Amino acid sequence: EAQVTQNPRYLITVTGKKLTVTCSQNMNHEYMSWYRQDPGLGLRQIYYSMNVEVTDKGDVPEGYKVSRKEKRNFPLILESPSPNQTSLYFCASGTANQPQHFGDGTRLSIL
Amino acid sequence: QKEVEQNSGPLSVPEGAIASLNCTYSDRGSQSFFWYRQYSGKSPELIMSIYSNGDKEDGRFTAQLNKASQYVSLLIRDSQPSDSATYLCAVRPTSGGYQKVTFGTGTKLQVIP
To answer: Is the pLDDT of residue B77 over 80?
Structure first.
């Protein structure tokens, strides 16, 4: 089954404690992206990757890091999380000719 | 000006009616257009994509694109309570092969039984 898998689905943590949200896709897609979704603001792109070792900033990259060492994985790293990063996060993958498919989301709460 | 604009709603329609959802975009070079449905707390689910002017039908859903007016719409015929969700319009240019997809903030649809 084609899917984008995010882990964890839910996380409550404290300010300053490094965390990683993993994202894996089994569709051999070149393109992967991270979004955050906040009420009234819609989906905003954090980072994207067009292929292995190729990443770039989206619209709201501050406070986040990513890496793309393998085609299937695109982890999102919060080195020093802060309360304003409390949000619903989505990973997505796609190709140049296909629309994006989204993971089930990760709800992060940073106290 | 927002790149992709949608009325946030809620748009309320009675069961069995036609729901009409609208979206305008600012980048005249945009070539690919998508409609996603998102239930509360869930991930966006692709329901329609359209790439050329005119109408595209898939079951109860019809997407309409007018590039000259920079306008894309989604019609849902015979609306059902299960259609109650937020509908996201997404737009993608084709330049450079970079998949920069811009989303609207979504229109909340409520179908009243």
So the answer is: yes
Q: Which of A40, A50, A99 sits opposite B105 (nearest CB)?
A: A40
Query: Hey, of A35, A37, A49, which one would you mutate to test binding to chain B, going by the most B CBs within 10 A of its CB?
Result: A37
Residue A10 or residue A39, greater confidence: A10
The residue of chain B with its CA nearest to that of A55 is B98
Sheet holding A4-7, edge to edge: A4-7, A19-25, A76-78, A65-66
pLDDT (tens digit, 9 = 90+) per residue, B59-70? Answer: 999 999 999 999
The CA distance from B99 to A68, in Å, is 16
pLDDT band of B94, cuts 50, 70, 90? low
Residue of A nearest to B94 (CA): A96
- Give residue A10's identity as a one-letter amino acid code: Y
